[in-house]
Amino acid sequence: MTMNRLLVTGGCGFIGSNFIRLMLEEYPELSITNLDKLTYAGNLANLADLEGNERYQFQRGDICDREFVDTVLKESKPDAVINFAAESHVDRSILDSTPFVTTNVNGTLTLLDSCRAHQVTRFVQVSTDEVYGSLGDEGFFTESTPLAPNSPYSASKAAADMLVRSYVHTFDFPALITRCSNNYGPYQFPEKLLPLFISNARNDQSLPVYGTGENVRDWIHVLDHCRGIDATLRKGRIGEVYNFGGRTEMTNIALTKLLLKLLGKPESLITYVNDRPGHDQRYAIDCRKAETELGWAPEVTFEQGLQETIDWYLNNEEWVDNIRSGDYLSYYEEQYGDRLS
């Protein structure tokens, strides 16, 4: 399917920024408009290398603002919209669920209505495997696994997915949904496990592991996920869900110890803390549908990807430190005259 113009929402975040950069590299004819509210996890520095690129345009705004979304769609005339915009940190959703419902549910609804009005021909909702809930020791999530979200974050994403599904069936809206396991790679906000632990270990600070650390996650490199979203956009069937995973299951404690070993740091840095409320035990993705229908397969081995990820954070200490100190927020204030929420 030919795509010349894309609108990406939430493109200053971890996965969105990697997607934008990859698409511009892969498709020389492609132009991208990036709509991002620039909340705390949206970082303009993630795409600083694209400043001045004629094929890239940034628009600051809120996906909940219908008038603004309408204006951007009217001006950019995208062939497709890819929605990355979301509040995504489980711990924050436990402390305050309201922003998650506002952005993830109401924001998605606003996008759907605006895209319908402007006759967008392709819409990809980027979701998460967390909507499926928790697995036991056996089995894998498939696209037909019933949704059973266990956190306010995952519940808000599941609600958004249901809205997308309803628009496909009620209005023949041309939408697809992707769900993915835990991502890792460059430009991930340092509150998430891997960048947090790499940064803490670098500074000989403690690595806080929830409970006993026996919770299991399936890890996929962010660029493999982005390639999956691209394949869904171009080859996926309208109304379908596509799962993406890295087939790399690991307990949190095993991953933590591996990181310390690769960083040459002692395991004495590990600190066990009270477990997260409602902490899901295990996630694991069956991605055979994406492999069969889309011709997609993960390309980055975990060993390669993890080492490259560690190297990236160690070689980009200024990027990490600016976020951890909050200095990056001052730049936004200078540019836009207000602090971020």
UniProtKB/TrEMBL annotation:
Pfam families: GDP_Man_Dehyd. It catalyses: dTDP-alpha-D-glucose = dTDP-4-dehydro-6-deoxy-alpha-D-glucose + H2O. One of its GO terms (biological process) is nucleotide-sugar metabolic process. Residues 7-309 form the NAD(P)-binding domain. It is an enzyme of class 4 (lyase). Its EC number is 4.2.1.46. InterPro entries: dTDP_Gluc_deHydtase, NAD(P)-bd_dom, NAD(P)-bd_dom_sf. Its cofactor is NAD(+). GO terms for molecular function: dTDP-glucose 4,6-dehydratase activity. It comes from the Bacteria. Keywords: Lyase, NAD. Gene3D superfamilies: NAD(P)-binding Rossmann-like Domain, UDP-galactose 4-epimerase, domain 1. NCBIfam families: dTDP_gluc_dehyt. Belongs to the NAD(P)-dependent epimerase/dehydratase family. dTDP-glucose dehydratase subfamily. This is dTDP-glucose 4,6-dehydratase. The gene is rffG.
